[in-house]
Amino acid sequence: MVTTLARPRGRESRTRAGDVPQPTGAAAKIELIGVTKRFITPAAAVFTAIKDIDLVIEPGQFCAIVGPTGCGKSTTLSLVSGLARPTAGTVRVGGREVDGIAGGMSFMFQSDALLPWKTVLGNIALGPRFRGVSKKQAHADARDWLRRVGLAGFEDHHPHQLSGGMRKRVALAAALINDPSILLMDEPFGALDVQTRPSVLFITHDLEEAVALADRVVVMTVGPGAVKGIFDIDLPRPRGAVQEIRFDPRFLELHHQIWNSLREEVQRAYERTAHASNDEGGRS
Question: 258 near 219, Cβ under 8 Å?
Fold first, then answer.
């Protein structure tokens, strides 16, 4: 979990120079306009991760991106966060072009990335402490978020004393305690209905999870990744866990529609991998 300058709503945050109050954030709009990202490989070849991406996530919308391995899902998150810059095109957050690490944003990686020497309470309180919140207030807020994610009573445990699922919940609390305007999530956990309403960009290989959590599901093509289809999810909220809604007729209908689009890309990715393996075998 990495948090980047997320400002808490309902309080004033202060800069280092002069303690000037900063405006609190709200859910922000995310825009990718004609975005392409290329990398130089170790062999000095040009690799295109994503190409000509046009995508809009409205304020407060939960958008899940699905696609085969290597289609550029995680690259898209890096561009939105400002950890990477596009080769072509424009990324905007809250109407402003992203030209560095963006403020008001929390990022959950595939790994929970908790600090092993800190307690659960200390890990969750880390973001507010970095922003100058008092230790007493940060710990009070951390205890509240522990309660929200169902881990009250585990404040003094260390990460190695928790199960994998519990560590993911700690990482989620550590991201949400900053009250971000945008939450970026790279395959962080199994289904968990979000109880906050930042704009969410969620990466997953699990289509059932995507349908259960999202307001909108975006299907990407095999790399170089492009947007193949966008599906609005009209299931009512609150939805509960995947296990509770997966047999709902509308859930099954949406899952079938999206899988029909995604299946072709998964098959293309498999065929590409098999072809590459055969080529390697022929040269050995």
Answer: yes
